[in-house]
Write a structure and sequence with these properties.
Length: about 350
C-alpha cells in the first residue's frame, strides 16, 4: 500500500512526541533537587522547559504544514541571519559558567548556535541541489567555504556545536557526492581545523588530559560522578526518581550528563531502549531521505538525520568517557529551551518532506 501525498510520517511523529514527553518526565526527575536548592521551586526547570516545548510543538506543526519547497528561497537569508546572531554573541552575548553563548531579548534568552544548525541544513540542501554534482571537487570546496564562517563564529565559544555543524556539512556532501577521494581532503582539513581550535585555548588541551585520567583532576569530578551513576544503575536501575547521584553529586544533572542519571534510574535496559528509540528515529529520517521526491527534500532529511545521529553519539560518548567532555546535550531529553524549540522545528521540516514522499508503509 502506498502512502498518499499530503500525509505525514505517522511513526516519525509518534517517536518525536514520545521522546518529548519522556524527556519532560525525566527532566523533572533529574532537576527537582537542583531547582529546590537553587530557586526554591522543584519544578523550576520543568516549567521553563514546558514553555519551550509548547512553543516547539506549535512550530513543528506550523512548519510541517508548509510546502518545504517554499523554504528554498529563504535558505540564504536564514543563514545570513545565523551569521549575524553568532557574531552578536561575540559582541553582546551573555556569559554563563564561563561560556558566552546566549543573547538576551528582554526577559528571554536563547542560543543562536542552536538556530545555526537548521539554517545550515537548509542552506546546504538548497545549494547542493542546484549545483552540478559532476563537478564534485568544486562542489565540495564551495560547501566547505560556505560553512566555515559559521563554524568559526560558533566554534569561538562553542566548539562542540561547531563540530556538529561541520559534521552535518560533511555528511551532506558525502551523500550527494559521487566520488570519495575529496573526503580525504575533508578529513585532513577538519583535523587541521580542530587542531587550530584546540591550540588557541589551553583549557581545551587540558580536557584531553582529564579525559585520559579524570580521577587525577578536579575538573574530572563530573565525569567520575557520571560513571558512578552509570555503574550503580545495574541492569534495571534504582527506579524512576531513585537516583542518588542527582542529589548534588553530578553537577547540573539535568543538562549534558542526564544520560548518566537515566542509566542509574532505569538501568542498562532502560538506556538501551532509549538508544533503540533514537535508532528508529534516525531510520525514519533515512527512509524519508530515500523516498523524497527531489534532491532538496532528500538532503533536508539527511541533514536532520546527521544532526540527531551526531549529537546522540557524541553525548553518550562523553557521558561514558569514550571521548573528552565537550558539553553536548542529549536531543529532546536534556534541559535547554532553545535546543528543544529548534529541534522540534527541524522535526516539522522532516514531516513536511515526508508529506511529499511515496513509499510503502
Amino acid at each position: 500500500m502506498q502512502s498518499k501525498t499530503g500525509k505525514t510520517d505517522g511513526l516519525l511523529l509518534v517517536i518525536v512526541l514520545f521522546l518529548t514527553a519522556f524527556g519532560m518526565v525525566v527532566l523533572y526527575s533529574m532537576s527537582a533537587y537542583n531547582g529546590q536548592v537553587r530557586f526554591g521551586d522543584a519544578a523550576y526547570y520543568f516549567k521553563k522547559q514546558l514553555f519551550a516545548m509548547v512553543l516547539g510543538l506549535a512550530a513543528m506543526y506550523a512548519v510541517s504544514r508548509i510546502d518545504y519547497h517554499i523554504l528554498l528561497k529563504f535558505s540564504v537569508p536564514a543563514y545570513l541571519l545565523s551569521l549575524a546572531l553568532s557574531g552578536a554573541v561575540l559582541l553582546f552575548g551573555d556569559a554563563y559558567n564561563g561560556s558566552r553563548r546566549w543573547l538576551s531579548i528582554g526577559p528571554l534568552s536563547f542560543q543562536p548556535a542552536e538556530y545555526a544548525k537548521p539554517a545550515v541544513i537548509l542552506l546546504l540542501a538548497g545549494f547542493v541541489s542546484r549545483m552540478d554534482r559532476k563537478k564534485s571537487g568544486r562542489m565540495t570546496a564551495a560547501v566547505l567555504l560556505l560553512v566555515l564562517p559559521i563554524v568559526g563564529l560558533v566554534g569561538t565559544n562553542n566548539l562542540s556545536t561547531a563540530v556538529i555543524i561541520l559534521g552535518i556539512a560533511v555528511l551532506m556532501i558525502f551523500i550527494s557526492n559521487p566520488r570519495y577521494l575529496p573526503f580525504l581532503w575533508i578529513i585532513l582539513a577538519g583535523g587541521g581545523f580542530l587542531g587550530i581550535f584546540l591550540s588557541l585555548e589551553s583549557y581545551r588541551l587540558e580536557r584531553l588530559a582529564i579525559w585520559r585520567n579524570p580521577e587525577l583532576y578536579e575538573k574530572g569530578y563530573q565525569t567520575m560522578q557520571g560513571l558512578y551513576a552509570i555503574g550503580s544503575g545495574g541492569l534495571f536501575g534504582r527506579g524512576l526518581g531513585g537516583s542518588l547521584q542527582k542529589l548534588g553529586f553530578v553537577p547540573e544533572a539535568q543538562n549534558d550528563m542526564i544520560f548518566a542519571v537515566i542509566c542509574e534510574e532505569l538501568g542498562l535496559v532502560g538506556a538501551l531502549l532509549l538508544m533503540l528509540l533514537f535508532l528508529v528515529l534516525i531510520w525514519r529520517f533515512m527512509v524519508i531521505a530515500t523516498h523524497a521526491p527531489d534532491l532538496f527534500g532528500s538532503l533536508i532529511a539527511a541533514g536532520i538525520m546527521g544532526h540527531i545521529a551526531i549529537q546522540v553519539i557524541l553525548n553518550i560518548a562523553v557521558v561514558t568517557n569514550t571521548i573528552p567532555n565537550t558539553g553536548i546535550t542529549l536531543p529532546f531529553i536534556s534541559y535547554g529551551g532553545t535546543s528543544v524549540l529548534f529541534l522540534l522545528s527541524e522535526m516539522g521540516l522532516a514531516l513536511s518532506v515526508s508529506r511529499f514522499c511515496t513509499y510503502s508503509r
